[in-house]
Amino acid sequence: MQITAAVLRAADGPYTIESLDLADPGPGEILVRVAGAGMCHTDLLGRVPGDLVAKPVVLGHEGSGVVEAVGPGVTGVTEGDHVVMSFDSCGACDNCRAGVPGACPQMMALNMLAVPLDGTPRATTAGGEAVHTRWFGQSSFASHALGTVHNVVPVSRDVPLEQLGPLGCGVQTGAASVLVSLGVRAGDSIAIFGAGAVGLAAVMAARVAGATTIVAVDLHESRLDLARELGATHVLNGADQDIAGQIRAISGGEGVQYSFDSTAVPEVVATAVASLRTTGVCGLVGVGAAEYTLDANLLLMGRTVKGIIEGDAVPQTFIPKMIELWRQGRFPFERLITSYPLDQINQAEADAQSGKVVKPVLVP
User: What is the pTM of this model?
Assistant: First the structure.
């Protein structure tokens, strides 16, 4: 079928709006008419020089929309369903079966290469040029996307579908890291480094969990103001001196029980670890750093550093939980969103990079 998509042809080039021919859904695939697609920091991996993400490519991995067709073997999803698209997984390995699909051994191949495992292109230009459309099992910067039985999550029809896409990755990562992976409980303390969509979702989740000390750290005062409105009990500008010392003072001198980093900035990660009490746990979700240097003495005293993928969530169960929290007025993720038409994708990317907006959502 003919679709419209935002195509990235070079790491340092602009997105171009193009018409593509998209294949019909094959075995285990689901055709979704996209209502909205969040732009996530991970999409910037398409701009990293080199061959990690094949070009030309359609990015986008926070799509929501309506199912238009299903391929052979698809169960549990039918035409007309409203869905959110999340990350892909194999569904059959030990980790998937244990409820941690983000740790699927095929995570890289299924999500971050943008190429089908069988190498068969799913989209082409009118001239027959292959365009890669397997980014996180969806490539949703388009009017239509092909998802899979493992990453398409049916949702209720009475919620604002065009705003739900970010629940598939960024918002899920922040919220589930707090509620699932770290297991923050009532009365706990947490410091959250980076108040973008992931960090602000973590702030909201910490408030849901009942944490009594929630410290948000960022360089943008507007984001710190929003963090306070969403549940942060304290906010700190990351440009200030001795952030770890300030956090220890806020938490009574010992440090916080949990810290959470979404920046992947090595100096910030070191500060996040230094902000912990001796039994504390630091969760890392940021992408892009080559290595971290940490004070070994901090770890020897009992602190833990934990890498987290997609919050250790199972999207099929966690996304509906976030929607229910939103219904109750306890998880207002819509406050993070600024909508743009799909053909304004380059402006949306620039605004996100500058910090002008928190979470762009592209509407075809």
Answer: 0.96
